[in-house]
């Protein structure tokens, strides 16, 4: 198949590279000339394990190229994917669809008569309908179809998620579009990955319903962790005990400082707005959002409490800044709430993250960016572990303790066994554990 991918952001780049790995011919389009030039030189602008090698291999094989010329890329494509950004609109939490609609119009103008436009960006229910209307208006003489094909990639394991997904969801309103989508994903059907074909609105809603459900799970276990602390129970064992029930499942039950990233915060808000406007507000998602907001504040309070109620003039070391490990993404990271609150309470904050320092520096004014975890903890009155990078799971605890002014360790990801930390001489606190 010949595919065009509009937008070389996270989803576009990963999807484009993976489709070319399937054997399709893929042209990725971006307006930003600098990004396209860098990509053609084999430079990958985002941090994603395995992506660089994948791009290199398929570009060398002639199946993957990058251009700013949308017209040329789209002209003979069987399907054109829209993977442009849909940021939260300031003020009302709605997804901003202006980039999607602008792309739809340009594609319709340049596309062949039987092209399928596929929405890969996360878009509210009804967007496919609107894109269809734009395509009809722009090119009434063409038989352009519009499909929805939501993405379920996790940053840090996006390639694996694309190549071995639990399912592929496709939303279509005619047989031609369905056949094109089935051909595109044939390599996965050979691996027996289920392909769920639904109508467009249903496919669009599945994406939001899935992300919001996962966010519910996280806020749920986070509130359970708070309850565990009050009643003297252990949240890790509670999570295990409920997760062993197949109906619940063990995943997404890790308590922590609250979910962040580019998807859960944005998608829960967008689903709320859609549901309110439709007159069927999903109240459980509102509660999930509220719990998550409050949680980030509570994490700073927890650090202050661990320091005896006062951090003024004290050095606090933060380990991990990205919203999760294996990414340099700072979007909605709990660190962005926690660290400024500590600074406001008078603390001097030093931080280290293996990948996100560059992204984090402009977002965290006044935070000292240390050269290593050990440099960050030097002279600190407390360490707060915010992101569970592997290298923070295997710290030389003797060295950490010896260099600190006061051995207070606040572990917001439950990385260490409490007994080990206490016997190592730390005043250790974690989430929902005794
Ligand atoms: C998520 C979804 O997993 C993916 O399917 C969707 O397409 C995009 O959003 P991503 O944002 O990359 O992916 O990260 P994910 O690994 O899902 O983590 C999201 C947030 O939840 C992180 O802040 C993480 O720390 C937090 N989290 C996750 C928890 O606090 N506890 C958990 O048990 C799992």
Give the SSE layout.
Layout: E1 2-6, H1 10-21, E2 25-29, H2 33-40, H3 51-60, E3 64-67, H4 70-75, E4 79-82, H5 98-110, E5 116-119, H6 127-138, E6 145-148, H7 158-163, E7 168-171, H8 175-184, H9 186-190, E8 195-198, H10 200-231, H11 235-243, H12 264-277, H13 283-306, E9 315-319, H14 335-344, E10 348-352, H15 357-360, E11 368-369, H16 373-377, E12 382-385, H17 390-393, H18 397-403, E13 408-411, H19 418-423, E14 427-429
Parallel strand pairs: 1-2, 1-4, 2-3, 4-5, 5-6, 7-8, 9-10, 9-12, 10-11, 12-13, 13-14
The protein binds uridine-5'-diphosphate-xylopyranose.
* Bound ions, cofactors and other small molecules, one mention each: uridine-5'-diphosphate-xylopyranose
Estimate the global geometry from the Cα principal axes: elongated
Please give the domain count.
Answer: 3
| Helix count from the secondary structure assignment | 19
What is the gyration radius calculated from CA atoms? 24 Å
Strands of the largest sheet, in order across it? 3-2-1-4-5-6
Low-confidence stretches: none
Largest sheet: 6 strands, parallel
CATH topology of the largest domain: Rossmann fold
CATH class of the largest domain reads Alpha Beta
CATH architecture of the largest domain: 3-Layer(aba) Sandwich
Structural class: alpha/beta
Distance between the termini: 57 Å
Number of strands: 14
Helix content class: 40-55%
- Report the sheet-strand fraction: 5-15%
